[in-house]
DNA sequence: CCATAAATGTCGATT
DNA sequence: AATCGACGTTTATGG
């Protein structure tokens, strides 16, 4: 890992073209050759970058300024960095990273809801998780007290896309005489207004689920701090 | 901007929980308090991070190890970094960045296609760009040689979402007696097979557009290098 | 300020 | 390798 702080100008040409006027920035060159140009604000996204696999070639422009040309290996994407004034330049041996362990995403929410289907509606019972259809798996297939099938789509954030997805499943499942009629439930920690409206128009019920309550907010073993 | 290279352990708790075992990494602390933890590989996304607005508090753990606690201002997201061994620590004044200029995204593609509607189909003429409907603007509204309305949805990458979007517009527009019948064209630089199949099923025509050809690939003033 | 759509999205899983 | 869906998405844009 090489860290450079420099007054620089950057140009990118690839899927789009982009230009950064001269200013002082941090340039990160990773062991795999990838390059990140960061400013002192914004969030984790660099102003400009080149993803691996790529190669860095150091050269000198016509006016004598040091210039890096970073070229992608598979496409003709190119990043050109003019280093007008280098304020810091250091290299560091980092080694291979053991990587990140995650917990708490949609899969976990699905597991919890599968075990607590009544959260979605009184009397609902689970038939199976990941019920397969021709166009993909439905998160939960349930039956209500009347024995009718209920397809459940689970999202962390209930967006319009999720409603469309569930609509496609329902359309398909309702062609199956063995299942018909199938109604839909759209379950999420948060449901966007537009998604709610579309769901209503499609006769799909919306349920907002409380992840922390399901997980058991009082269980101290699940809290890090 | 502060740059720290250190053997560290990181824990995040917020919308999910995540853990990084001890290893040497680069930690970037930006002027706005945001923190990025980078390894020596991967792409531009940090292993862990905290977005602004947030505050960094430096403390010492029970075992004497220096520990940073970064807390988000608006949520209770927390990032905890145990600095087991600091190999490098430097601070740099960067100043405000003038920002990025971009060119070549969807809007530009839409401008180009608006001026060259025949690329989408022989005899097509433009009625207007950004034709407003109750659920949002249709990229292009055209008429064909027979005078029938044609709604065009433009994407850089033609995905299933875009087909769904156009479908919603068409459904709505076909309820309008003044426009009916309206057919659809899905235009993109690249169209995914699944999107193509769905479009076919909906009676929507797919057109792959060559951005470079439209822009005029031979115009040297548009080439950076 | 809230809501939605785009992104040089990135990332992981699965075909 | 290609495709698909999720993401602590982030970021820009319009109401």
Brief rundown of the structure:
The structure is a homodimer of 225-residue chains. Chain A has 225 residues and is an alpha+beta fold.
Write the layout of secondary structure elements.
Two copies of one chain form a homodimer.
Chain A: E1 2-13, E2 17-29, E3 35-38, E4 48-50, E5 54-60, E6 66-72, E7 78-91, E8 101-103, H1 106-115, E9 125-133, E10 136-143, E11 149-158, H2 160-173, E12 182-191, H3 193-201, E13 205-208, H4 211-215
Chain B binds a DNA duplex (15 and 15 nucleotides) through residues 12, 14-16, 18, 42-45, 48-51, 75, 77, 102, 104-106, 136, 155-157, 159-161, 165, 192-194.
Task: Please characterize this protein's 3D structure.
By secondary structure, the first copy, chain A, is an alpha+beta fold. Chain A folds into two domains: 2-91, Protein Yojf, Chain: A (Distorted Sandwich); 106-215, Trna Endonuclease, Chain: A, domain 1. The first copy, chain A, is 17% helix and 46% strand. The first copy, chain A, is built from four helices and 13 strands. In chain A, strands 4-3-2-1-7-6-5 form a seven-stranded antiparallel beta sheet, with no helix packed on it. Chain A has a five-stranded mixed beta sheet with strand order 9-10-11-12-13, with helices on both faces. In chain A, strand 1 (2-13) and strand 2 form a beta hairpin. In chain A, helix 2 (160-173) runs parallel beside helix 3 (193-201). At the A-B interface, strand 1, strand 2, strand 7 and strand 8 of A face strand 1, strand 2, strand 7 and strand 8 of B. Chain B binds a DNA duplex (15 and 15 nucleotides) through strand 4, strand 11 and helix 2.
């Amino acid at each position: 890992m090489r860290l450079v702080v420099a007054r620089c100008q950057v140009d990118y040409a690839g899927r789009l073209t982009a230009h950064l006027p001269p200013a002082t920035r941090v340039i990160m060159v990773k062991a795999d050759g990838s390059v990140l140009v960061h400013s002192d604000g914004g969030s984790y996204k660099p102003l400009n970058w080149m993803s691996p696999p790529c190669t860095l070639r150091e050269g000198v422009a016509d006016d004598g300024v040091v210039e890096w040309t970073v070229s992608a290996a598979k496409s003709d994407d190119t990043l050109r960095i003019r280093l007008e004034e280098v304020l810091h330049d250091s290299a560091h041996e980092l080694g291979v990273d053991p990587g990140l362990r995650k917990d708490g995403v949609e899969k976990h929410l699905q597991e919890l809801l599968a075990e607590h289907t009544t959260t979605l509606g009184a009397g609902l019972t689970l038939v199976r998780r990941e019920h397969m259809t021709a166009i993909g798996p439905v998160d939960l297939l349930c039956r209500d007290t009347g024995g009718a099938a209920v397809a459940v789509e689970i999202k962390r954030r209930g967006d319009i896309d999720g409603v469309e997805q569930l609509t496609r499943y329902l359309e398909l499942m309702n062609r199956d005489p063995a299942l018909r009629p199938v109604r839909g439930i759209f379950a999420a920690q948060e449901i966007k207004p537009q998604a709610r409206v579309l769901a209503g128009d499609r006769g799909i019920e919306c349920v907002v689920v409380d992840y922390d309550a399901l997980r058991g907010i009082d269980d101290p073993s699940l809290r890090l701090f």
